[in-house]
Amino acid sequence: MNVQLAVPKTPSADERARGMVADGTALASEVNGEQVTVYQPTGDHVVLSDGKTGVPRQSFFKRVMLPENFPTSVHEDYAPHRKWQFIRDVSAGMTSFYATSALVGAMGFGEIGPLSAGMTWMIRDAVDGVGKMGASLIAHKADKDPRAWFVKGEVFAGVGSLAETTLLLAPQTFPITAPLANICKALGTGTKNAASAAIEKHQALGNNLGDLRSKNGNQSMLASALGAGLAIAGQLVGERFLGPAAVPLLAVGTTALALFAQKKSVDVLQIYDITESGLRSAVRDWVKEGQLPGPGPSGGFFTWFPTPGGMFSNETDVKLGCSLEEITRDKAHFDELRSWYRDRRYMLDFDGKDNVQIALHPEAQPRDLVAAMVQAELLTAARTSQTFKELSKNQSREAARDWAIKTSLRAAPTDSQGFLEKLERLGWSTERILLSAGQARVTWQPGPAVDLGGPMDIKQFQQEIGA
User: Fold this and answer.
1) Would strands 318-320 and 346-350 be described as parallel, antiparallel, or unpaired?
2) Residues whose CB is less than 8 angstroms from the CB of residue 437 and which lie 6 or more positions away in sequence, other chains included
3) Which of 338, 362, 377, 461 suits 266 as a labelling partner, its CA being 20 to 30 A distant?
4) Given the DSSP bridges, would you call strands 318-320 and 356-360 parallel, antiparallel or unpaired?
5) How far apart are CA 456 and CA 410, in angstroms?
């Protein structure tokens, strides 16, 4: 006779935390990597961990050196391929050093021979790795909003090139200017490469991504040769009239032209995925005009850059997927939030610096992220309104904050799927919703039901905030 013994399963930290929220011994819990945090009615935070919960966090080294969610995000041949490629790069780097040392030394630079000359020049080239590392940390953003980051990459690269041209006027600054300029150029190039990957994938309709990429490279090579010829002619003419200052001045003009052309090139792209910047811009137009706009470029060239006044204004930043600690600093206020958001899969608050914090429920879907971002932008409109200022002055900032949150919540779409269908009818693509969120997920115990006053349409919202 076979006897089977049932071994009781030890609940994970996440399961224990959810149970505490369900039975009322905790008000909320958060899963963030392998750590589970429980928020108790006393206002204390208790950390539970069993080493099995959630996705392990990547170290800074892995974040810089490996793709996100490695190894599950790549093919099994990625690691062995990159191992041999790394050995190749080390060997090629050594060869490049020897070649540069010999070349620069033969030209008579350096006080103690080819070694010092090669070292100086190689340091200048090597520091662009810092810029490439910086680009790798924002590459995932470029994937999700290629238009904006393609232009930003051009700005970085242009600033670096302009810095290098100033060496003609101040060659003694080479040890500082050259490395910093190279870092800036590498940051711009890396950012543009990340953005162009999404653009090329969008444009290659058949199984022709490699062919498209190689032909784009041929076009760039031809353009570079033509540009070099025009630059030589411009320098010869410019230096005759302006002397050494001609090159920096010409570089300013060509950089401005490159940036203008880059902006125009992304204007014609028909990439209409829902991104954070695109969605927030659409909601701003919705509040201003009373109707949602379709996708595509809006405004002129200079709308891509902040105005002098806007650079110092108190812009609202949005953190999608915030930690539990960021929304539980004020226990009484958190109790109100639990009631206001009892039927939502996200919870929104904003801090003393007017930064919006969005906590996401473990069951939150992409459509819930869209609703959260829409409310975040509606909150921004409410926070900058005359009504908010009057409430802050006549009552208190806390009263104004609560009014802004509840008013924006009433105007935010309750039918997220219907809202997405409306965006789709306007021309947006809803196949991919490219919103980046932190990995923290929060479960909260719903508070008592309260009457917020019913939903608002956009016209009622405009009247409420005095727009």
Assistant:
1) unpaired
2) 320, 321, 360, 369
3) 377
4) parallel
5) 5
What gap in Å lies between CA 433 and CA 440, rounded to an integer?
A: 19
Is 208 in a helix, a strand, or coil?
Answer: coil
pLDDT of res. 297: 63
- Start-end of H helices in 166-275: 174-203, 209-242, 246-267
SS (H, E, C) 59-117: CHHHHHHCCCCCCCCCCCCHHHHHHHHHHHHHHHHHHHHHHHHHHHHHCCCCCCCHHHH
Domain ranges of the chain: 13-57, 64-271, 275-465
pLDDT above 70 covers a percentage of the chain that reads: 76
* Count of all residues that appear for the chain in the document: 467
Give the C-alpha distances (Å, rounded to integers) separating 227 from 157, 158, 231. 16, 15, 6
Cis before 71 (ω within 30): yes
Q: Token pair of 433, please?
A: 């919703």
Sign of torsion over alpha carbons 97, 102, 103, 108: positive
Please state, in angstroms and rounded to a whole number, the distance separating the CA atoms of residues 380 and 272: 24
Listed residue (286, 288, 466, 285) closest to 386, CA to CA: 466
Is residue 258 within 8 Å of 126, Cβ to Cβ?
A: no
Looking at residue 137, its amino acid is: L
Question: Is pLDDT at 312 greater than 50 in this prediction?
Answer: no
Question: Residue 66 pLDDT more than 80?
Answer: no
Tokens describing residue 107: 């030209």
Stretch 175-204: mean pLDDT, rounded? 82
Average pLDDT, the chain: 78
pLDDT digits (tens, 9 = 90+) for 377-425: 999 999 989 999 999 999 999 999 999 999 999 999 888 888 889 999 9
> What backbone torsions phi and psi does residue 260 show, to the nearest 5 degrees?
-65, -45
When pLDDT is averaged across residues 439-464 and rounded to a whole number, the result is: 90
- pLDDT at res. 99: 53
What is residue 204's three-state secondary structure? Answer: coil
pLDDT at position 8: 46
106 near 157, Cβ under 8 Å?
A: no
Find out whether 333 and 309 touch, Cβ atoms under 8 Å: no
- Residue 57 DSSP class: P
Q: Which amino acid is at 434?
A: L
- Report the predicted TM-score, pTM, of the whole model to 2 decimal places: 0.69
Name the percent of the chain in helix, strand, coil, to the closest 5: 60, 10, 30
